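Ex. 9. Protein: Chaperone SurA.
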Amino acid sequence: MKKWKSSLLGLMIWGAAASSFAAPTEMDKVVTIVNDSVILQSDIDAMLKTVRLNAADQNQTLPATDILTEQVKEKLIIEALQIQQAEQFGIRIDDNKLDQSIQQMLKQQQMTLAQLQSKLAASGISYAMFREQMRRDITASEARTIQVRRRINILPQEVDTLADQLNAQNLQGVQYNVSHIQIRVEEDADKAERDDAEQQAKTLVKELNNGADFANLAYSYSKGPKALQGGEWGWMRQEEMPTIFADEIKSHGKGAIIGPFRSGIGYHIIKINDVKGLETVSVTEVKARHILVKTSVIQSDEAAKRQLEQARQAILAGDQTFAAAAEALSADPGSAANGGELGWHTPDIYVPEFKDKVEALSKGVISEPFKTVHGWHIVEVMDRRNVDRTDAAVKNRAYQILFSRKFNEEAQAWLQELRAGAYIEQLDNNEGADDERS
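Predicted C-alpha cells for Chaperone SurA:
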C-alpha cells in the first residue's frame, strides 16, 4: 500500500522525475496542466532517462518511446492529483519523519546511506532531489490511504468465512491430543437441572483456568466415555474426532481449555494437551493491580510519590491491604472500585513505563513508586498465564488479507474517479492544446 516502501529501484525512478525542484532550464516548458499545477518537459525527460538506465541495468526491454512517454505522463498526472489531495488534507511530511522513512528503507534494502548516495549519483540523481521526491511519494501515499480507508467496509461474516478457509488449509494433517469432561443432562431434565449442569460446567472451567488438574476433575465429574482414563482421548486428526469436538477445536493450540459448550447429551469441556503439525500463537497475560495518584496544582510530584511510598510501606507492614489502599487513594476509578485490580491483559496495552514495570516485576512484589503520563503508580503483579491466541491470529490474518484486497481495488477506483473529476490539459506546443475536462 505504501509505494515508498516497495523498492529502491522504484524510488530512484520517481526521484529522477523531480527535476521541477531544480532551477528550470531556459528550454523547459509546460507539457500538462493538472488542475492548478503543471508537469514540465524536464519532469518527463528526467523520468524517461532514469527508467532507461534502470531497464538497462536489469536487462529489461522497454516499449517504443512514444508509448513509454505516455506511461510517464500518466504516472506524473496521478502523482500530481494525489499531492493536491494531500494539500487539501493538510498533510505535511517534516524532515524527522522523512529521515525515519529513509532509514527504514535503508534497513529493508540492507544498505548504508553512503551506498545509497553513491548509487543515486551513478544514475545522475542528487540526494537532495531524491529526498524531496520521496517526501512527495510519502505525501501522496498518506493522502491515498486516508481516502481509500473510508471506502472499505469489512463485515464480520467475511472475516469468519475466510478464517474458516485458512483454518481448513492449516489443519490438514494436524493431530490433537485431547481430554474431555462431559456433564450429563438427562433428556427429561427440567430447567433447574439443566441450569445446575451448566453452572457446574462453568465452575469446572474456572477451576481449570486456575490450574486444576484436568484428569482429577474428569475422574470426579465426567460422565463421558473416557472418564476412567482421566478424560484423555489420545491423538486424533480432526476428521477422526466426534463432530462436537471438531466443530469447537478449530485452530486452538496446545493448552487451550474449550467450553463449556452444549450438545444434546449435556455440557462439554475439552483440553488440548498437545498438538502436532500446527503452528500456534501463545501470549503471556498479566493480572496486575495498581494505585494511581495524580499530580495537580496543589499536589506536586514529590507529594504524590511520598503518598504512594507511605501506602506501600503500610501494605508491606500489614497495616493495610492493597485493596483497601486502592479504594481509599487511587485516582483510577475503574480499578479502585475493584481493589486496584486491572484484570488479565497482555502488557503491551499499557503505556511504556507501566508495561516495562509489569514485565519486570516478580509475582507478588509491589513496585516502588514510578511515574507515567497518567501520574504516579505502585503496581503489583498478581499472576501470569500463557494464553492461546491462535484463533485470534488467524482471524487477524483473514482481516488483513481482506483489507489488502479491498484496499487495492478501492485505490484503483478512487484514482480513476480523481482523474475523471480533474481538469487536465495536454499542451501541444506546435499546434495548440488538447484538453481533458471532466
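Check your answer against this statement. Residues 1-25 have pLDDT under 50 and may be disordered.
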